[in-house]
């Protein structure tokens, strides 16, 4: 299997200056493995270099091929966020090869990967170090192999364009050295990674490496793969969330053209046919009696009142409080609605199973499929191949389609390609939960702010996958409430000097499936905070930018991005009546961002005219990719703040497609979403989730300033009350 | 079961399927043409957008039985003789993120530019608002359409 993890290692590489461990993997051509070593005590680290990779969790590996291509295998999933391009750039930089000589692959599920989870804006934060170290180690061994062959001093050699060069003009391609480099015992040149001042690839705006495949239609998602004989499969699902099959009659469905089989599942009734169209037709001909799901007594109004009731009485204000200002906010359930619906290709044969899907946590997919097949104790019988995903946003931490596909494949004895309809994907997903928030700002004499108390009532966010490692995955499955609470506690804070500040989570048990959504709790808590900061400014009769500036440390990243957006966005410029600006900021995962949004409410429906973003993400490995993520997250935020939200009617989701789940279209989005990067290249900060919360809050703040009324319930254009 | 004959990406194809089978599934499940994507099946997301006699259309709601004598082009046919200027512009503007909607977006843009060599922002809004991009690449799609219009006017490529 091309993307399977290699087992054996030979000579140790060692611990580099940043604390990343590297190994040479026993292989005919050069292969270097690396892990994130900061959590390994120094004494153990020296030992770890000699240990077998089979027993030591890995972060990634880099392999040189005889044709000179460099294959990098990662335990991460490309869902559109551009990690394959950023990774290829780092490898090309350290190894001195052309960008298009680097292939980046997603690894199959394997417990030996230290963390095999794509989320928390963590891919580049975690993998940049190991990538640099592994590539630098590989380069040193290639140079050493050339020196040994030519019998020259290794430090006299240089590298460029995938070749080693000697001072006398001789040159050798990496492919020609790949075998000898694998047998180098000790590199004779430094294995240190390049100083950033010498970068010529990293930090330069670069187009995606998969762009050509995408624009020609050659990019392959799970259901585009060719697995001979794989049969289209769809599932009839209950009208309510988590409803169950009581009884069904497939007499008509089985006789319909193209139908191969009907398979009852816990989640519904699967129909297998020659084409998807025939499968859909037969699905619609099934007669199924459903048992209502556990939320069938709940509608929006009940959920909102349950959440409000969970907020409880006010805490005592700090001493010297003269006045307390209160804000209340309601957020809706959201569907992630990736363009590629939940899909999986599966083939179960005897005691082995193979599945292909764009999973955000392939190890969790492996465990789930194994459990469904009754192989809890032998999950290694399930091979999970990770494909590119048509969007993820948190939805693909769950793998219902893989479980269903494996069960159907086993039942009919043939490979299947199982696809959720758009309606299934909207109405039977795991959702970003609804929430209710109460924020109290305690004010003292002279406009002083003595305290900030935010209590959020949120249905438990299901994190059964944990944070990618074994320990939290076990915790996530066994103690979902605790995992969710821990994640809330570590991720929620306010950056301002607002006296005694606290954030409290009230988890409310509501039997509607949930999942993390881009920026998780911050998509609600962080948005409410920044909207209420503007309300506080109104109460104190100060400019919202001035209030923020005065409460942020002067040398902080946040102050810098706020100042940038205020200056390039021309905060306070003259605008016609009914047009206003809003700002908001966020600091998360070692990155800082500020948004300035202009909105026009003169025609009733708010229309976004302009979005200006300033962000400090540390070293932007690919500035063009960072810009794309921030532009996309802004559209996410504008969509879900303005018009897209789910409604629950007696335990069923009302919205079933993009016709009623009103994601913004071309005509609703401003022609330009400007991104300005404030560079501070001392670290690699998170990017994927960064752009959502303050975009949502800046829009709400602009609407408040344009209309005179602060939005407190989202989406703002909700007509389903 | 009838035989249906039509032209697909310049070649005559014959398929034996029920006449009401939507073209999307003929393309994907019968002919193995996987560029057009399923995004909704009801004609509201545009992920399958292709061309019928040069006009943008939705294979997910178009029965194969009505195609006799007509010409269908999918994303695979667009770049058959080298990249189309719209594809080139898409690469230069680095439009795609997940990429799933982009074959449909590109086909919609090609159809727009064929009718309108100088699309304004309002023209782009009107022509492109039936195609959803969940990753939010609209800003770059708009920029790529403008770039492609320039490329086409300057005579680059095959001229759409």
CATH topology of the largest domain in chain A: Aldehyde Oxidoreductase, domain 4
User: Fraction of residues of chain B in helices?
Assistant: 25-40%
CATH fold field value of the largest domain in chain B: Ubiquitin-like (UB roll)
In CATH, the architecture of the largest domain in chain A is 2-Layer Sandwich
**Tertiary shape of chain B:** globular
Largest interface: A-B, 67 and 64 residues
**In whole angstroms, how far apart are the ends of chain B?**
36 Å
Main beta sheet of chain B: 5 strands, mixed
Indicate the proportion of strand residues of chain A: 15-25%
How many structural domains can be distinguished in the coordinates of chain B?
2
Spell out the helices and strands of chain B N to C.
EEHEEEHHHHH
User: What count of structural domains of chain A?
Assistant: 3
Q: Structural class, from helix and strand content of chain B?
A: alpha+beta
Poorly predicted residue ranges of chain A: 7-13, 38-55
How many helices of chain A does DSSP assign?
18
What's the β-strand tally of chain A? 28
- The oligomerization state is heterodimer
**Could you list the spans of chain B in which at least 5 consecutive residues all have pLDDT below 50?**
none
Task: Provide the gyration radius of chain B in Å.
Answer: 15 Å
Question: What distance lies between the first and last C-alpha atoms of chain A, to the nearest angstrom?
Answer: 53 Å
CATH architecture label name of the largest domain in chain B: Roll
